[in-house]
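Structural prep section.
Before we set up the soaks we want a predicted structure of the protein with magnesium ion in place, mainly to decide which crystallisation condition to try first. Input record follows.
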Amino acid sequence: MKKNIKRALDKTPLITIVIDIDRNVTYYNNFAKQKFLFLEEGRDINTVIRSTDLNIFINKAFSEKKDFKVEFQPSNFEDWYFIADLVFFHENDGSDSELTMMLTDQTMLYSYEKMRTDFVANVSHELRTPLSSIVGYIETIKNDINLDKTTTHKFLDIMEDQAWRMTRLVEDLLLLSKYETEDKPLQFKEVEIVKVVQSAIDNLNKKIEDKNLKVILDDHYNKKIISLNSDSMIQVFINIIDNAIKYCQEGSNINVALKEAMVDDNIYVQVKIEDQGEGISSEHLGRLTERFYRIDKNRSRDLGGTGLGLSIVKHIINRHNGKLTIESELEKGSTFSVYLPALN
Ligand SMILES: Nc1ncnc2c1ncn2[C@@H]1O[C@H](COP(=O)(O)OP(=O)(O)OP(=O)(O)O)[C@@H](O)[C@H]1O
Ligand SMILES: [Mg+2]
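Run finished without errors. Recording the tokens verbatim:
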């Protein structure tokens, strides 16, 4: 390869690899080496990047002596996604023995796009299930003229339930998008944190009574004041305590404690919500705040859940520069801790 081409390729901000007709690497730049650590001169390109699509186009380029563009996902790095420009820099003597591959890393764009399509698929699925149940019952009521009043009522109750389910899902999606998009600042006010927690508990009183639970609130602080957005923070505690209620046994206790905690040399207010429920096994812990993530989809759906609660929690806490930790032991219970920056 000519020196001036090599110098240009050294500087190009694209992952650049040159191969000869035997598919062996003859040159690579720094960006290429950073991405593909195994790159070495003389190595068969197929042992570095495995992709049938890329291979087909390399073969085409060499046989047709033409430039090509190809999108591919290497099978040895499944999360990565590239667009490759396969280019011949024609030498003076007319020989086209070397093919230059310039790769644009599309991984971020691709994963963003995948997240978006997954999200749309999830939302559609969550809406379609209650919707088809409602449509089914409407048809039954319309077609069966002999349907007695009690059965009709039973069907209407189910339809009402399903309609509420859809309403909740839409409300949660609106909340999520409100807290996810950061263009509108949240209004912060100085308030007693214990009052915020207490309003969340009051909001859930009926569910607490129905399951015969006891919520024990322990305020070590005695009315500590911090700066927060009340409405959204009440939502955080409603979502976490609602889970504690849903996923614990009848008649058990839920302990809520407020105290000071140091994290990385900073003072935080810790609100700890501890249930004596079924617990969560460790492989799920890191994923609970993903949208629509539920350990047992059917069970959570039966309990009215859509799997958006904790992702809303995460976004609101982030908007407060706070942190969320989850600890759990199977059959013993789970502890969710919300850390919020304390006022100096
Ligand atoms: N305290 C808890 N004990 C056991 N499992 C829990 C607890 N909190 C959350 N989980 C698990 O985490 C999953 C995600 O919780 P999340 O609140 O995001 O969704 P959800 O409760 O299923 O639905 P919703 O959107 O109505 O809150 C739940 O489906 C459940 O499997
Ligand atoms: Mg929930």
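Observations: The mean pLDDT is 92.
Flagged for discussion at group meeting.
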